[in-house]
């Protein structure tokens, strides 16, 4: 295996999303860089040759300045590896009550939101998000959501930074409130100790990510993943 040759992995719709290459972090996202939307035919004509492009389509940058948009214009568009991982576990107690809180999060990573390929692709086979209501419908109407067109001749859904988002989050992972009964209450029942607890997992998440759940796994690609469920537990422990 030649360490100087990049290897592409993690395909979506027969296109590679991530890359392994020398001097780069593991599994960086690799694709095209977007530059708004063609607003009129004049902008299409004066741009580098971009097969299939029409007004209302995504404009991609000609990074190597050869006058043609092709595979040679792909570059690193995001890093799924976080710069920071952090957690904090706190507990407070008062008399028989105890409150435990566990916070967890990451920062500095990117997510490739592949769900939006279908959810905003405006194809008849898939449900769409309300974002498509803000699509391009004429000059000046949008510079981010492309036109609705059959067959996607410009490949607006190709691997690009259009689907890369900030993956940082802070999650209240667990909160538990418990009460330990006074021993004098338990003596007549010959119980040594008793503890009642109520806990909740995955209570809340602070994030700028638009998907269901920013905790998507090590490759950073969010596609058809069911979000982590919020669960409640009630417990009663006895020692005789």
TrEMBL record:
<protein>
    <recommendedName>
        <fullName>SusC/RagA family TonB-linked outer membrane protein</fullName>
    </recommendedName>
</protein>
């Amino acid at each position: 295996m030649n360490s100087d040759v990049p290897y592409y992995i993690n395909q979506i719709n027969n296109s590679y999303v991530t890359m392994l290459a020398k001097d780069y972090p593991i599994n960086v996202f690799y694709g095209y860089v977007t530059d708004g939307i063609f607003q009129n035919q004049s902008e299409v004509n004066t741009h580098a040759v971009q097969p299939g492009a029409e007004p209302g389509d995504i404009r991609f940058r000609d990074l190597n300045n050869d006058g043609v948009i092709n595979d040679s214009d792909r570059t690193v568009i995001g890093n799924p590896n976080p710069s920071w991982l952090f957690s904090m576990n706190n507990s407070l107690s008062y008399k028989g009550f105890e409150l435990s809180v566990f916070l967890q999060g990451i920062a500095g990573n990117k997510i490739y939101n592949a769900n939006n390929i279908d959810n905003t692709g405006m194809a008849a086979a898939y449900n769409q998000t309300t974002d498509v209501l803000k699509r391009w419908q004429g000059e000046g109407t949008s510079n981010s959501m492309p036109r609705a067109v059959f067959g996607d001749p410009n490949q607006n859904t190709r691997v690009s930074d259009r689907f890369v988002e900030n993956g940082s989050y802070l999650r209240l992972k667990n909160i538990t409130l418990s009460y330990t009964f006074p021993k004098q209450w338990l003596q007549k029942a010959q119980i040594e100790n008793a503890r009642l607890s109520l806990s909740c997992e995955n209570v809340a998440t602070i994030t700028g990510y638009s998907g269901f759940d920013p905790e998507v796994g090590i490759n950073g690609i969010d596609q058809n993943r069911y979000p982590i469920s919020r669960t409640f537990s009630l417990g009663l422990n006895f020692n005789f």
